[in-house]
């Protein structure tokens, strides 16, 4: 005879199961919902804190194991969904309605792959099911349109009675995109001066019709100038990421960036080391440390920041960027694509931890 299992029993065995990153009980965080029991078959919904949860499989396995330990349970069916929490941020900053987490991607100097990281992280989050936007604030060289296959596009502007102009973002590969390049033309050199720059950036933050977003990625210009200051002071950032390469000079630039964010009260999520090692196209199983190894780890240690990921230098990354098809889509099984997917999940995990702690 089948024993009757009740919901409370299921909740009781699930109580000790924790989200390993948040280190809190799934039950206490109300991540277990809609329990339905049909004889020995238990169904429920697991609501994660990000669609890009890095530990999703592990959490599902832990839940299954716990419920199967209950006497009389024959099968466990778990539907996994996600509700991304909203970043806290300082009270004097004005959030963007509908946008839960704003993440700035920065670098101390140009050419380290900041835009490549921003674009591939955005696409990776979208591939995991998140609602994602990217704001190209790199006014001195807006490369996001090129890398997302939107070169030459223009943003539509809506004028509503008595309202400010509203810009409609473009959309490609699951990502909403706004770029200075859609406005001024990618090849038009522009000299931005303080107040003009300030108002352009504010328009891009608050007058783009972003809709509902789990993550808005901002590709900052390199360095620590006016644009970075304006942005960091305007919106409540969930966090900033500093992209570096392994050379020792990069450490100095990274430190400057870190200081700026700290002074502005912006949490730094960690360091991303790009071009960590080289994978030759004809020998994809080989790895060469061209810039000396361990630079990113050393930088992260010295700055007391986590190293969020190490990305290889691989030709298809540049080719994908130039062709407007990010490596995460163009060569989804490549080492680089896998590294970007993992990086995006690590970032999403950190953002959730920060929002809920
Ligand atoms: N991991 C990588 N492997 C191969 N090529 C890469 C990698 N990362 C970036 N690149 C290439 O290096 C060049 C510079 O990258 P990117 O434009 O992303 O840098 P950036 O830091 O945003 O530069 P800037 O801010 O000066 O515009 C691009 O051609 C890009 O395709």
TrEMBL record:
State the organism of origin: Gloeobacter kilaueensis (strain ATCC BAA-2537 / CCAP 1431/1 / ULC 316 / JS1)
Q: Which residues form the MIP18 family-like domain?
A: 7-77
GO MF, one annotated term: ATP-dependent FeS chaperone activity
Q: What is this protein called?
A: Iron-sulfur cluster carrier protein
Looking at the record's lineage, which domain of life comes first?
Answer: Bacteria
Q: Which GO terms describe its biological process?
A: iron-sulfur cluster assembly
Q: Gene behind this chain?
A: mrp
Q: Which Pfam families match?
A: FeS_assembly_P, ParA
Q: In UniProt terms, what function does this protein have?
A: Binds and transfers iron-sulfur (Fe-S) clusters to target apoproteins. Can hydrolyze ATP.
> Can the keyword Glycoprotein be found in this entry's annotation?
no
Question: What are the UniProt keywords, alphabetically?
Answer: ATP-binding, Hydrolase, Iron, Iron-sulfur, Metal-binding, Nucleotide-binding
Q: Which residues bind ATP?
A: 108-115
Q: Which family does it belong to?
A: Belongs to the Mrp/NBP35 ATP-binding proteins family.
Q: How does it assemble?
A: Homodimer.
Give the lineage: Bacteria, Bacillati, Cyanobacteriota, Cyanophyceae, Gloeobacterales
* Record's keyword annotation contains Transferase: no
């Amino acid at each position: 005879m089948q024993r009757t299992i009740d919901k409370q029993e299921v909740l009781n065995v699930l109580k000790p199961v924790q989200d390993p990153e948040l280190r809190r009980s799934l039950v206490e965080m109300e991540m277990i919902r809609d329990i339905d029991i049909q004889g020995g078959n238990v169904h429920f919904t697991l609501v994660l804190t990000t669609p890009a949860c890095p530990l999703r499989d592990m959490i599902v396995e832990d839940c299954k194991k716990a419920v199967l330990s209950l006497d009389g349970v024959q099968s466990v069916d778990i539907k996994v969904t996600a509700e991304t929490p909203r970043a806290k941020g300082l009270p004097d900053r004005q959030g963007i309605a509908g946008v839960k987490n704003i993440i700035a991607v920065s670098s101390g100097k140009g050419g380290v792959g900041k835009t490549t990281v921003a674009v591939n992280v955005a696409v990776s989050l979208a591939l995991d099911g998140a609602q994602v936007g990217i704001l190209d604030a790199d006014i001195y060289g807006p490369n996001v349109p090129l890398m997302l296959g939107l070169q030459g596009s223009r943003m539509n502007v809506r004028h509503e009675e008595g309202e400010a102009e509203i810009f409609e973002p473009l959309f490609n590969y699951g990502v909403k995109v706004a770029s200075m390049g859609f406005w001024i033309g990618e090849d038009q050199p522009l000299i931005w001066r303080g107040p003009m720059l300030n108002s352009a950036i504010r328009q891009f933050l608050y007058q783009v019709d972003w809709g509902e977003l789990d993550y808005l990625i901002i590709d900052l210009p390199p360095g620590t100038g006016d644009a970075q200051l304006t942005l960091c002071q305007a919106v409540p950032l969930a966090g900033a990421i500093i992209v570096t390469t392994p050379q020792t000079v990069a450490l100095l630039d990274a430190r400057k960036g870190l200081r700026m964010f700290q002074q502005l009260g912006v949490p730094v999520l960690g360091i991303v080391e790009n071009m960590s090692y080289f994978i030759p196209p004809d020998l994809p199983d080989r790895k060469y440390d061209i810039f000396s190894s361990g630079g990113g780890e050393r930088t992260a240690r010295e700055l007391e920041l986590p190293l969020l990921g190490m990305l290889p230098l691989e030709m298809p990354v540049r080719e994908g960027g130039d062709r407007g098809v990010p490596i995460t889509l163009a060569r989804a099984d490549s080492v680089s694509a896998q590294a970007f997917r993992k990086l995006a999940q690590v970032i999403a995990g950190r953002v959730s931890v920060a929002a809920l702690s």
